[in-house]
Amino acid sequence: MWTQMMAASGKIASFRLPPLPTIGEVIKLYKLRATKQLSQNFLLDLRLTDKIVRQAGNLKGAHVCEVGPGPGGLTRSILNAGAADLLVVEKDTRFIPGLQLLSEAAPGKLRIVHGDILTYRMDRGFPSVISKPWEEDPPNLHIIGNLPFNVSTPLIIKWLEHMANRTGPFAFGRTRLTLTFQKEVAERLTASTASRQRSRLSVMAQYLCTVHSCFTIPGRAFVPKPEVDVGVVHFTPLAQPQIQQPFKLVEKVVRNAFQFRRKYCYRGLELLFPEARRPELAEAMLRQADVDPTLRPTELTLGHFRALADAYAGLCSLDPGLAAYEFREELRLKRIIRKTGSPAPPYPPTGG
User: Fold this and answer.
1) Is a pLDDT exceeding 50 seen at residue 178?
2) Sign of the CA dihedral 135, 138, 143, 149?
3) Which uninterrupted H or E stretch holds 190?
4) Are strands 209-217 and 230-237 parallel, antiparallel or unpaired?
């Protein structure tokens, strides 16, 4: 099968789908309705789906994974853009017959996986021969999707962790992503330092990727119409992350920094440490990182976060118990102790 696919990814004739029922007709034909619980919103205007696909770059001969194709509007645009191998991952059984119709219209080009993108092993979905070394140009593999709102944030966090670890879709190299998000989430992903929308998501995405806001789709373009507009965002993983620490450690530092958005950054950062040693260790970390404790979280640059992550990693290497510490767990134990009257054990058991 891979041989046929690789032959297809060489020099290919331009491909256009044959005449097909419109997306609206497919929805009627298979009695499809958007499910509110799955945050489904259909994009019926093929001019808009074509515009999304153009943001991914040249797809002629490319391998593509589409997330949540639904009735197949974006799928058609990807196929018409010349993708040689399109793998679609769809959780909702109702959409499979319509996608099979498309598969028959594009022989050998469309593969359908009935499954959940949050658990699907994309590293097994494409041939290893398409891989590129991380430091070189990105592989000819793209992830494209009109994401349901309820899955978009957990999914991009999961993919950012895969990116940091070079696993999943990024086992092939610096795989590019073109995805839709609620406009507010898109703004957070691309927000610059000191902007109102700057958040944990901004820092986590931007330390690993070049993140580009492409364009906004008005809510009225979707069926059913969501209450918000939608932003299209393109991600290209960086050859060298801007913070050279494990993803979980970076995420913990950034999450704590944004714990109190409107207060000085030290208020959230000190919660990285057990209460008994909090002032001492927080001061040591901020001093070592050369970060002004009175900056607001939104004012911290990627350089600040790099210095903070490095300083925190240094403290954890001196006292390994710090890495396991979570302030919410200490609060939970305190509540239990208040109820039962038991003496409080040290949390976590730390060195001197």
Assistant:
1) yes
2) positive
3) helix 183-190
4) antiparallel
